[in-house]
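Q: Protein A?
A:
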Amino acid sequence: MKLIYSDPKTGLSASMELDEDKKSALLNRKIGDEIDASVFGLTGYKVKITGGSDSSGFPLDRSMQGQLKRKTLRERKKKSTGERVYKRVTVRGNMISTDTNQVSVAIMEYGSKPIEEIFPKKESPPDNKDKEAK
């Protein structure tokens, strides 16, 4: 399972791969639950579950209870004409299960570790100028 954590203040995000012990801390939690992030190595931080997707790529839906995958009829309005358009969409319930592949969380309370240590800096890609010159 992949955990994507983000900071709403700075807009930074990073991801980590969870092993079985860390994954069990998320099982049967719902979207909107706040949990202690010390389980994931972020001591002192509290995070809120904001979404996710299952192994097939279907998103977790906040309005659907449970862990099952269902097809629902969604209504959207066209901006130009105001006409209603209905679309059948497959979504999974709002609880995290063993089928969940990715979980997104947002940082709610900050801990003792500075934010720069939590979000690793991205390495710049190597310059390809040497190859082009040859």
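Q: Protein B?
A:
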Amino acid sequence: MLNIKTVPTYPQPAYPTPYNQKYESEYCDSRKAPKCSKNGTLTFCLQDSEYPEKEVKYAIDYDPIILKKYADVAEQSADNLVDGLTSLAEKQFDYSEYHGNTFEKGNWVGGEGYICPSDVLYARPVRAINAEGEWRVVVQEMAWPGYTQTQRTETCLFPGSSCRTLAPCYQSKCLQKYVYQRMLSFDPCDPQKGIFIDIYKLPSACSCHISA
């Protein structure tokens, strides 16, 4: 006999529109990049002057099961996420002399660091593009004091460039890797949905690939 496990479902709360808020159609194009994304060059924002704090707070207050949806490890660093490396050492990585060119001096000199230079953040996004290409507001402490959503992101500084310190006889390049993450979210174009879990594609690693 098959042992089939069912996933519990919860009723979707009904939310009155907060403060009789009316959203302009221009603001409600979920695929239009917000100002914080610098004309769409960023896929997530760490600061957002247009963050709808009141609306998010209102939706949280009307959601009786929000704590069932929430999970986070607030204190994240190399100390608990990278084996054999301290957060202090990671912060001191310096790639200022490397420019992605195998035959430049900067490819061979420099101190400790990853073979593919990257920018590592322990970030708390406030707005981000979901897996469907739509912008969502991410629930953070500014709207829900004491609660955060933290993600470790790692972005290649020179995607497609040769790996640092490898001899030219190796055909190598730095590849950007991604991971899908779930975060509590709010859709400013559809506030009646309240708080829900959405999926986001975030940069997770910069890996060196050597061709055969």
